[in-house]
Amino acid sequence: MDRSDKTLEDLFLETLKDTYSAEKQILRALRKMSKMADSERLAFAFDTHRQETERQIERLESVFEELGQTPRGKPCEAVQGIVAEAEEIGEEFKGSEALDAGLIAAAQAVEHYEITRYGSLRSWASELGMEKIVKLVTETLEEEKKTDALLTRLAEERANQKAA
C-alpha cells in the first residue's frame, strides 16, 4: 500500500495493536514489580493494577471485535524499554532505600505512555464516529490516570517518611 493511502483508521488500528502489546507486557511486568517492591502498599498497588490491566486487555479485545479484527499486538518497543529499565532498577537497587522510588518512577513512565496512547485512541475513535469504542477507551484512560495519581501519592508519602 502506498503510504499516501494510509488513513486515520489505519493509524487507529496500528496504535491499537501497539497498545494491546504494551498491556500484555505490562501485565507480566506488574507481577515481577510487585515481588520486587519493599513497601507492602506499593506491592498491593501493583497487584491491584495487574487485575485492572487484565480487564483493560479484555476491553481492547472488545475494541478489536467491534472493528471486526482478531486481537493481536505488534511489538511495543517503548514499553519493552521501560520494562527493561524497571528490571534493571530492581536488580541494581535491591535492598536499598531507593528501590521503591525507582519502581514508582518506572511504573509512572508506563502510565504516562498509556495515558498518551489511550488519549489518542479516544480522540481518533471520536473523530471516526466509533462511539462504543470511545466509551471503552475512556474507561481505561480514566483508570490509567487514577493509577498515575496513586503512584504520585505513594511517592510523596515515601518522600515524607524519609524526611521525618
Main features:
164 residues; Ferritin; 5 helices; elongated
What's the helix and strand layout?
Elements lengths: L7 H29 L3 H27 L10 H16 L6 H29 L3 H33 L1
Summarize the structure in words:
The protein is built from 5 helices and no strands. The chain is elongated and about 55 Å long. The chain has a single domain (7-163), classed as Up-down Bundle (Ferritin), CATH 1.20.1260. Helix content is 82%, strand content 0%. The protein has 164 residues and is mainly α. The longest helix is centred in the last third of the chain and has 33 residues, at 131-163. The model has no long low-confidence stretch (mean pLDDT 94).
Q: Termini, distance in Å?
A: 61 Å
- What is the annotated CATH architecture? Up-down Bundle
User: Class, according to the CATH hierarchy?
Assistant: Mainly Alpha
Average of the residue pLDDT scores: 94
Number of helices: 5
The computed structural class is: mainly alpha
CATH topology: Ferritin
Order of helices and strands: HHHHH
- How much helicity do the residues have? over 70%
Tell me the number of structural domains: 1
Q: Quaternary arrangement of the chains shown?
A: single chain
* Structural shape: elongated
Instruction: Write down the Rg.
Output: 17 Å
Strand content: under 5%
Biggest beta-sheet profile: none
Number of strands: 0
Unreliable segments of 5+ consecutive residues? none
At the fourth level of CATH, the homologous superfamily is: Ferritin, core subunit, four-helix bundle
